Amino acid sequence: MDLSILVQYWPTLLGGFELTIICWVLGTIFSMVLGLIISLAQRYGPRPLGWLLRAYIEVIRGTPFLVQLFVLYYGGPLLGLRLDALPAGILGLTVYGSPYFAEIFRAGYLAVPVGLLEAARAIGMSELTIVRRILLPLSLVSALPALVNFSIILTKETVILSIITVPEVMYSVQRMSTETFRYLEANLVLALFFWALVEIISRAGRLLETRITKHLIERT
Q1: N or C end of the chain: smaller count of CB under 10 Å?
Q2: What confidence tens digit (pLDDT) does each residue in 65-101 have?
Q3: Residue 185 in contact with residue 1, Cβ under 8 Å?
Q4: Cα 26 from Cα 91, distance rounded (Å)
Q5: What is the largest CA-CA distance in the chain?
Q6: Which CATH class is domain 3-218?
Q7: pLDDT reported for residue 209
Q8: How far apart are the C-alpha atoms of 149 and 145, rounded to whole Å?
Q9: Where are the domains of the chain?
Q10: How many helices (H) and strands (E) are present in the chain, helices listed first?
């Protein structure tokens, strides 16, 4: 094992690390927001809209991310949607992740005691106030572990973006491996990067869960 080769390719690898984090952060934020909108629309929207959103969820969850990415990037121009590799990758992560986040939020809503919602309506709270002050905060506590877990899954899905030439960390590692034939060193760096990223996300999620729980206890 020759780790000195990493010094030569460190600028390329560092650029790949940075782009992977950018893709993951944007993809996670956008898909989480879209998932929240979908879950609320399913709960409070008209029934036909709920059927359409359910179909969207089932189609996206039932097909591989790689297939979705190919359809978006290579099939998009046939429908007039022409995107560069990076925007297509972020959009792909958003579309792929939103149904999973929607289902996580929906499960969180079901964990909120119905009695609390009925009591809020009984004292004259509007539905918007109930959602903002009761439904979302309480559902977030129960849903947070699942939200963090799927965010971790999205970090690993970013490697698929290399297929459409997004120069993230997998793309950089493949380039290094091809040019030097040092596959062990390159993939060791890849594994260590994702391990460190997952550990950071996990610890941040546990800290956030503790703070949210403490805040809710103090409010009550």
Answers
A1: C
A2: 999 999 999 998 888 888 999 999 999 999 999 999 9
A3: yes
A4: 9
A5: 70
A6: mainly alpha
A7: 82
A8: 6
A9: 3-218
A10: 9, 0
